[in-house]
Write a structure and sequence with these properties.
Radius of gyration: 23 Å
Strand order of the largest sheet: 7-5-8
Strand content: 5-15%
Helix content: 40-55%
Order of helices and strands: HEEHEEHHHHHHEEEHEE
Number of helices: 9
Largest sheet: 3 strands, antiparallel
Shape: globular
Number of domains: 2
Length: 226
């Protein structure tokens, strides 16, 4: 996947000497790629959420309806986190992850148990956290990060479209994306759907995969109350 600066900027470490807090670093052929500090931040966020879901009292966990299926998101996240991690790590890496992150042993206990020196242990920890953080974000078709996409079904496409606002009164024409909401447009879109309207100048800012789902229509009008 392609990482953007708007995504990595909030995840990057300000003290990182490779990306200088921007989250992107130049790789081979002058191509920008996400910095390792971004992956480690993603890992820490997912690990914190895993611990929260695991330690939360089961009688306080909610049940959500997805289509025609009821699900317990907290328990599903715990299971997905462990299964994805176990499959991605080798036997030796899993021992380090299990002792240090799951069982909570500090570096002294881990180095004694694994017969490693302190420097080698932290080198392996950094490598494992970077690898897992990237996996949690780039996992397909459903990633473990961002958390709002996993738990609430909010996609990045919806977040981008949510930035658009209805035009000023009297505006003519525009670009509309059809989705759920309280608006209707003058192009015959039925009630119960939404035309997120943007000026023509904003059309070039949309990604190519969205352009095929856009249509030109008059300015939107408030939906009539039934």
């Amino acid at each position: 996947m392609e990482w953007t600066r708007s995504e990595t900027l909030a995840l990057a470490a300000n003290s990182c000497t490779f990306c200088h807090g921007l989250g992107l670093r130049t790789g081979r052929r002058n191509q920008e790629k996400a910095c390792l500090c971004v992956f480690r931040t993603v890992f820490r966020i997912c690990l914190t959420r895993f611990r929260f879901c695991y330690e939360r009292e089961k009688n306080k966990t909610g049940v959500t309806l997805e289509g025609n299926v009821w699900s317990r998101k907290n328990e599903e996240y715990v299971a997905d986190f462990l299964m994805v991690t176990r499959r991605a790590l080798s036997e030796e890496d899993w021992k380090i992850f299990n002792y240090h992150f799951l069982l909570g042993a500090d570096w002294r206990l881990c180095t004694k148990k694994l017969n490693m020196d302190r420097g080698a242990f932290f080198h392996e920890v950094y490598r494992i956290t970077s690898r897992l953080g990237r996996l949690y974000r780039e996992l397909q078709p459903y990633s473990l990060f961002p958390l709002d996409e996993y738990f609430h079904g909010t996609t990045r496409e919806q977040n981008r479209l949510a930035e658009f606002r209805a035009p000023a009164p009297g505006a003519r024409g525009g670009v509309a994306f059809v989705g759920r909401g309280p608006w209707r447009c003058g192009a015959g879109v039925p009630l119960g759907f939404q035309c997120v309207w943007a000026a023509r100048s904003r059309f070039i800012a949309l990604s190519p995969e969205l352009e095929g789902r856009l249509q030109v229509c008059p300015a939107p009008q408030p939906a009539e109350e039934s």
